[in-house]
C-alpha cells in the first residue's frame, strides 16, 4: 500500500471495515477478520517496489501467491509514467517473485485490450510490439517533449501508451514462466458486480456506471455508441473469482504459462440495442433524489452527431444550471464536466465505435475443472447472465454505492421525478415558444401565420 491523502498505510487499513464492499463479510465475521491483513509500504513505480529491506524479507520468507494488478490506466499519459509503472513495475514484481522462497504461483492482471490492434484475439501472448530494452532506453534518455514527438512511431498500431506498455508487461511475465507457474488474466471492460458481494456493487465511475449516473442525474442526455456492436462487459466479481481460480489451477504445475480472456463477447454478447427501449423506463422507475433535471437518454451513432447535439442538450443547460448553482452558493461543475467529456472523446473513439471478439476457450475449460461447490463459491461462468436484468441491478448499484441513496429514498425520488417532468415540459414549451417568436420576427409573419414553426422546431430538436 501507499500512503494517501495524508494517511499512512496503517490508518488506511483501519478504514477498510467501513467500505461497503465488506458489508456482506461482516454479517458473518467480526472486524477481527481484518487482522489477517499485513500491510507493507511500497510503490511499483519505484526501484525495488519502494520496499524497505525488512518488508522485502517479510515477503520473500512468507508469501506463496502473488497477484499483480497495479497499473496506471490513464490513456493520456505519455510513455514515461506508463513504462515506469506498467512495464518496469511488472519487471520489479517478477524480480521479487524470483526471490520468494516458496512461490506457488504468480497471477498477472492484464487487459484484453493489450491486443486492441486486432479485431479478434486469442488466449496467447502475441509478439512484442517493440524491443523492450529500446523502449526503456528511450524513456531514460529523452525528455518529455521528445518522447511525445516519437510516440506515434513507437506505439505503431497501439491506440495509447496503456495498451502498449501492458502488452510489453505480458512478456515480462512470460520470461519467468519456465521458473515458476504464471497465469495471465485479461479482463475486458470491468463493470459492477453481478452477484458478489452485493448485486450491483461498484466503486467505479468508469464506463456504464459513469454515464448511467450522469443520465440518472439528468445531465447526460446523449451517448455516442454503435448500439449494434458487441460491447464486451464483464462483472467485477467474475474477474476476482477468475483470478483466484486461474491461480489455483496454475499452482498445480511447477512452471508454465496460461492466458485467460475474462470476457463476454464470444460467450454471452451484449449489445446496447438490448437496452435501448428500456433504459429510460429504468431511469424513471428507480430515479435519483439528487437529480437536477428530468432524465432522458438517447444514443447517437457518430461522434459529430454527438458533438452537435451536446451543444444544445449538454452545454446550454449546463451553463444555466451552473448559474443557478452559483446563485445558491454552490460550486459550478456541469460545464467543466461536459468539457472534459468533450476533450476525451478523441482518444476514446476507437473504443466507443469498434467491436472486438475475445475468444475464451481456456476460460471455459477452466470453468469445467471446478466441482459443484467451487463453481458456486467461485463463479466464473458468464453464460447465465441476463443482460437487461443485470443492467437494472447495475443502475440500482450506481444509485446505492455511487450516489449514496438508499432504497428508502425511492418514494421521495419518484415525487421529485414527477416535479422535474412538469418543469421539463414547461421548459420545452418556453424554448419552442421563444424560437417560434424569433421565426415570426425574422419572416415578418404573425404568430398565427407561422403556426407551422412549433412542430417544425420540435421535430428538428428531436433529431439532436
From TrEMBL:
Residue span(s) of domain Thioester reductase (TE): 1-242
Cellular-component GO terms for this entry: membrane; peroxisome
Name of a matching Pfam family: NAD_binding_4
Catalytic function, reaction form: a long-chain fatty acyl-CoA + 2 NADPH + 2 H(+) = a long-chain primary fatty alcohol + 2 NADP(+) + CoA
Domain Fatty acyl-CoA reductase C-terminal: residue ranges: 314-405
Keyword Membrane: yes
Gene Ontology molecular function: alcohol-forming long-chain fatty acyl-CoA reductase activity; alcohol-forming very long-chain fatty acyl-CoA reductase activity
Subcellular location: Membrane
Superkingdom per UniProt: Eukaryota
E.C. number: 1.2.1.84
KW Metal-binding (keyword) present: no
Entry coiled-coil feature ranges: none
Enzyme class, first EC level, given as a word: oxidoreductase
Topology term for the membrane: Multi-pass membrane protein
GO process terms (BP): long-chain fatty-acyl-CoA metabolic process
InterPro entries: FAR, FAR_C, FAR_NAD-bd
Parts of the chain that traverse the membrane: 304-325, 419-439
Keywords (A to Z) from UniProt: Lipid biosynthesis, Lipid metabolism, Membrane, NADP, Oxidoreductase, Transmembrane, Transmembrane helix
PANTHER family documented for this protein: FATTY ACYL-COA REDUCTASE CG8306-RELATED, MALE STERILITY PROTEIN 2-RELATED
Function noted in UniProt: Catalyzes the reduction of fatty acyl-CoA to fatty alcohols.
Annotated family: Belongs to the fatty acyl-CoA reductase family.
Name under which the protein is recorded: Fatty acyl-CoA reductase
Species name: Parnassius apollo (Apollo butterfly)
Amino acid at each position: 500500500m501507499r500512503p494517501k491523502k495524508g494517511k499512512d498505510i496503517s490508518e488506511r487499513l483501519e478504514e477498510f471495515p467501513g467500505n461497503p464492499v465488506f458489508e456482506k463479510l461482516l454479517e458473518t465475521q467480526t472486524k477481527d477478520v481484518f487482522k489477517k491483513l499485513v500491510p507493507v509500504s511500497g510503490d511499483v513505480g519505484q526501484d525495488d517496489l519502494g520496499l524497505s529491506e525488512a518488508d522485502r524479507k517479510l515477503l520473500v520468507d512468507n508469501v506463496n501467491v502473488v497477484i499483480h494488478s497495479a497499473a496506471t490506466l490513464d490513456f493520456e499519459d505519455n510513455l514515461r509514467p506508463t513504462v515506469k509503472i506498467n512495464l518496469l513495475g511488472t519487471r520489479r514484481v517478477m524480480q521479487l517473485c524470483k526471490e520468494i522462497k516458496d512461490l506457488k504461483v504468480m497471477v498477472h492482471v492484464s487487459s484484453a485490450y493489450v491486443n486492441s490492434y486486432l479485431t479478434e484475439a486469442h488466449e496467447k501472448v502475441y509478439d512484442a510490439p517493440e524491443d523492450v530494452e529500446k523502449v526503456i532506453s528511450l524513456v531514460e534518455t529523452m525528455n518529455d517533449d521528445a518522447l511525445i514527438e516519437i510516440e506515434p512511431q513507437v506505439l505503431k498500431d497501439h491506440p495509447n501508451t496503456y495498451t502498449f506498455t501492458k502488452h510489453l508487461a505480458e512478456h515480462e511475465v512470460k520470461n519467468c514462466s519456465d521458473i515458476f507457474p504464471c497465469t495471465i488474466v485479461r479482463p475486458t471492460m470491468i463493470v459492477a458486480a453481478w452477484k458478489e458481494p452485493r448485486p450491483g456493487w461498484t466503486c467505479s465511475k468508469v464506463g456504464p456506471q459513469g454515464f448511467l449516473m450522469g443520465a440518472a442525474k439528468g445531465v447526460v442526455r446523449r451517448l455516442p455508441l454503435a448500439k449494434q456492436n458487441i460491447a464486451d462487459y464483464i462483472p467485477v466479481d467474475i474477474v476476482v473469482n477468475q483470478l483466484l481460480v486461474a491461480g489455483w489451477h496454475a499452482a498445480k504445475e511447477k512452471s508454465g504459462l496460461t492466458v485467460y480472456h475474462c470476457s463476454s463477447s464470444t460467450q454471452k454478447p451484449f449489445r446496447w440495442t438490448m437496452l435501448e427501449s428500456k433504459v429510460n423506463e429504468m431511469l424513471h422507475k428507480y430515479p435519483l433524489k439528487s437529480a437536477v433535471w428530468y432524465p432522458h437518454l438517447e444514443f447517437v451513432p457518430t461522434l459529430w452527431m454527438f458533438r452537435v447535439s451536446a451543444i444544445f442538450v449538454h452545454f446550454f443547460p449546463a451553463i444555466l444550471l451552473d448559474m443557478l448553482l452559483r446563485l445558491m452558493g454552490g460550486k459550478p461543475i456541469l460545464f467543466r464536466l461536459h468539457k472534459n467529456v468533450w476533450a476525451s472523446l478523441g482518444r476514446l473513439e476507437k473504443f466507443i465505435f469498434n467491436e472486438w471478439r475475445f475468444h475464451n476457450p481456456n476460460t471455459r475449460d477452466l470453468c469445467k475443472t471446478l466441482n459443484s461447490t467451487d463453481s458456486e463459491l467461485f463463479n466464473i461462468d458468464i453464460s447465465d447472465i441476463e443482460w437487461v436484468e443485470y443492467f437494472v441491478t447495475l443502475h440500482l448499484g450506481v444509485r446505492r454505492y455511487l450516489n449514496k441513496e438508499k432504497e428508502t429514498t425511492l418514494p421521495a425520488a419518484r415525487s421529485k421525478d414527477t416535479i422535474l417532468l412538469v418543469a421539463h415540459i414547461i421548459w420545452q414549451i418556453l424554448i419552442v415558444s421563444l424560437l417560434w417568436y424569433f421565426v415570426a420576427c425574422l419572416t415578418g409573419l404573425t404568430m398565427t401565420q407561422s403556426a407551422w414553426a412549433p412542430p417544425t422546431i420540435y421535430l428538428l430538436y428531436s433529431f439532436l
